[in-house]
Amino acid sequence: MLIKIKKSAQSSDIQLIRQLLDQHNLGHRVINGQDMVIGVEANPSEEVAREIHSLNGVESATPIATPFKLASLAAKPEKTVIRAGGVEIGGNSVILMAGPCAIESKEQLEDVALGLKGTGVSVLRASAYKPRTSPYSFQGMGEEGLKLHSEAKKQHGLLIETEVMDVRDVALVASHVDIVRIGARNMQNFDLLKEVGKCGKPVILKRGMSATIEEWLMSAEYIIAHGNPDVILCERGIRTFENATRSTLDLSSIPVLKRLTHLPVIVDPSHAAGRKDLIPALAAAAVAAGADGLLIEVHANPKKAKCDGKQALLPHEWADLVGQLRKVAQAVGRSI
Ligand code: PEP
Ligand code: MN
């Protein structure tokens, strides 16, 4: 249940509501967003619901069947449109986010940004902190990389997004980029989710590689419940028995999510496929299935890339792909 508190409510009114919830063993949390609400873990009995309704400070009390409340369509039937810079994510336009896996040097970012020019890209993706399977692999440039990313933003008029892996880096990362990304491996790092809930920037929340859609939405709920309603869900493939691809892109999650949540959904076909030849088909399918955006790896010199070169498109391949995607978007009533 979500209990909306009246604007005129006093702290004593809120205390009474909380006391009643405690009496009935109903776990809950006060959320201080634009409208103050109390998120209640479970739905109370009809009798208790009536009691809650009758309390002074209560404006409305909406029972919600799913464990995620604020992220649910039941709580908010209209789509969330997230504004970052001049870009709207979750509106009619399919938003393109592209760039290298990792920030490697000033020249590398410069080359890729020039290659993306004029292709309809709104957001330059690139990571300064890399979650690598091997401790001996390139771990990212850290703060120095963030500075290069900020420079590229100024130079090329693109928004920028990057991954944050550590609670201690959230404020620093958020001070540099327009959109903060939580990677698949940290989808259930709850302390990190709480921290980005307070960071004041939109958050791309990638699906954990073995997370169910409900678990994923519960992670989104953490971010929203900690003060940040601007969550963008990113499908990036899940682990299955199939090994022809790095992960299996779960395209069905797009229409499933559209029935469960008001949050925008984007798709990363690069990390799903792990190989660049499949990216056009997967990206087109994602747009056809209703994705609000794409996150795709592009590198001006993939053979020299410090990570994920095999799944990076060359800028001219990217430009060709955008041409194809425009047609698909148009066919489903969207624009790019
Ligand atoms: C990434 O987008 O840079 C990345 C590491 O992807 P994922 O977290 O989906 O593996
Ligand atoms: Mn990568």
Indicate the proportion of strand residues: 15-25%
Count of strand segments? 14
Q: How many structural domains are formed by the residues?
A: 2
CATH homologous superfamily grouping of the largest domain: Aldolase class I
According to CATH, the fold-level topology of the largest domain is TIM Barrel
Average pLDDT confidence is 97
Total of helices: 11
- Spell out which ligands are present: phosphoenolpyruvate, manganese (II) ion
Q: Which quaternary structure do these chains form?
A: single chain
- Overall 3D geometry? elongated
Secondary structural class: alpha/beta
How many whole angstroms does the radius of gyration measure? 21 Å
Given this structure, which CATH class of the largest domain is correct? Alpha Beta
Named at the architecture level, the CATH assignment of the largest domain is: Alpha-Beta Barrel
Would you kindly provide a written description of the structure presented here, covering whatever features stand out?
With 336 residues, the protein is of the alpha/beta class. It folds into two domains: 2-62, 2-Layer Sandwich (Alpha-Beta Plaits); 82-331, Alpha-Beta Barrel (TIM Barrel). The protein is built from eleven helices and 14 strands. It has helices at residues 11-23, 46-54, 106-116, 143-156, 170-176, 190-196, 213-225, 253-260, 269-273, 279-288, 315-331, and strands at residues 2-5, 28-32, 36-40, 58-62, 82-84, 87-89, 95-99, 121-125, 159-163, 179-182, 203-206, 231-235, 265-267, 293-297. The strands form three sheets. It has an eight-stranded parallel barrel, surrounded by seven helices. A four-stranded antiparallel beta sheet has the order 2-3-1-4. It is elongated and about 65 Å long. 47% of the residues are buried. It binds phosphoenolpyruvate and manganese (II) ion. Manganese (II) ion binds next to loops.
